[in-house]
Write a structure and sequence with these properties.
- By secondary structure, the protein is an alpha/beta fold.
- It is built from five helices and eight strands.
- The longest helix has 18 residues.
- The protein is globular.
- Removes 5-oxoproline from various penultimate amino acid residues except L-proline.
């Protein structure tokens, strides 16, 4: 099984982005050919780079990872929406407002990874985790949407989704954080779960939210 795992470079004035650090750090996994990829925190260019690698390696799955500073734990994203609406500029000072990502794409795409199985496995390892129903409207949502859009057009079908991880303690003194080792372990568990259950129906357990 081939799985592309992506993380982003630092953005918003940060010196580190734990997403790419996790991607670099987690170990090789039996039965999986891992393609680790650092993406620029840049609208469009990130998708161009990802699509190049998708076309080259023809993966079975794509799991992208991004930083969600302020969230207290790991979040598996349920849905990506077809809009870029940037609260801050990306790394080349682009700041799109209410721009459609793909004019011929759906209004939204749901993750095609077994996100509830992943959440269950991470939780059983004692790491805080939940399903998220908003990937935001910055580059994280952009790349999740673009990966799922690409999957609808690919000659070889593949599945895709997105994981957000919190700040690490080195980044903040007043917001929630999680040690890099725990986020890295969560990513490893996610990949193992994808390997084991990629083509199975996801479990039906309550992971909804009131707001």
């Amino acid at each position: 099984m081939k799985i592309i795992v992506t993380g982003f470079d630092p953005f918003g004035g940060e010196k580190i982005n734990p997403s790419i650090e996790c991607v670099k750090a987690f170990p090789e996994i039996e039965g999986v050919e891992l393609i680790r990829l650092e993406l620029p925190t840049v609208f469009k260019e990130s998708a161009k780079r990802l699509n190049e690698v998708i076309n080259e390696v023809k993966p079975d799955a794509v799991l992208s990872v991004g930083q969600a500073g302020g969230r207290p734990g790991i979040t598996m994203e349920r849905i990506a929406i077809n809009v870029d609406d940037a609260r801050i500029p990306d790394n080349i000072s682009q700041q799109p407002i209410d721009e459609t990502i793909q004019t011929k794409g759906a209004a939204a795409y749901f993750s095609t990874l077994p996100i509830k199985r992943i959440v269950k496995a991470i939780r059983e390892a004692g790491i805080p985790v939940e399903v998220s129903n908003s990937a935001g409207t910055f580059v994280c949502n952009h790349i999740m949407y673009q990966a799922l859009f690409a999957a609808t057009k690919a000659d070889k079908p593949f599945k895709a989704g997105f994981m957000h991880i919190p700040f690490i303690p080195e980044q903040t003194t007043d917001k929630p954080s999680l040690p890099l080792e725990e986020s890295t372990k969560a990513l490893q568990i996610a990949i193992e779960t994808i390997r084991d259950y990629l083509n199975d129906e996801d479990i039906k357990v309550q992971e909804g939210a009131i707001f």
